[in-house]
Amino acid sequence: MAGIVVVFDFDKTIIDCDSDNWVVDELGATDLFNQLLPTMPWNSLMDRMMKELHAQGKTIEDVVEILKRTPIHPRIVPAIKAAHALGCELRVVSDANLFFIETILNHLGLRDYFSEINTNPGFVDEEGKLRIFPYHDFHTSPHGCSNCPPNMCKGLVIERIQAEPVEGKRKFIYLGDGKGDYCPSLKLGDGDYVMPRKNYPLWDLICESRLFVKAEIHEWIDGKDLEEILLGLINKISIEENAQFISPDCKLQTIAVSAHEAMPQALRVQQ
Fold this sequence. Notes:
It contains 11 helices and 8 strands. It has 271 residues and is an alpha/beta fold. It has a 6-stranded parallel beta sheet with strand order 3-2-1-6-7-8, with helices on both faces. The protein has a two-stranded antiparallel sheet with strand order 4-5.
């Protein structure tokens, strides 16, 4: 049977906010962030902000405590655990950074459920300062995709995952919300699924250009929606895959037995 790969964006998909904004706002650095934003790419700005905050006496422990308070819908954790229990391979493709993502996933007890995290490198240096770098070094080897920010093309990540040598054809389910999730959505093919968060930039872009998206589209609103739709799609794929291994005669027998067993019993009426 072909495997199912579920690829999650992180910000506003797994968690219910933008992790960069959450940390900057909680550390009281919003004004400085907004002042510097027009002068450099977002990813470079986050590295600069971590330097500024470290110089102001903010510690990595302060950042960790803030990340532990990151808002998340209560149905997201059960949804991820259920998808993993059903045999799906789970991956993250995010324009956040590795330190933020791993800190939050570890706090939620979810890190080991993901086989891979594709994101901007983030680590604590010898001075105790968080450093954040681009996934693609846009100074020496730009990715050349006009749909994506200079530091990361998620479409290239999806193409690399699709090209991995595996037995059988895998089905992909991609969940995201932002403009950066549009490029990877275009890389999905027939038989794949994309789950854009409704009324967010990815949803708007897909609505404007549905003909370019080959994957089946299933929008979601919140964590409850995400859980129901994701597990429903996994179940649908599994049923379709299992059906390929059942002979027509066997299918008919199964349907007949199931229909008989599913018939409600007559109620005894009191005289």
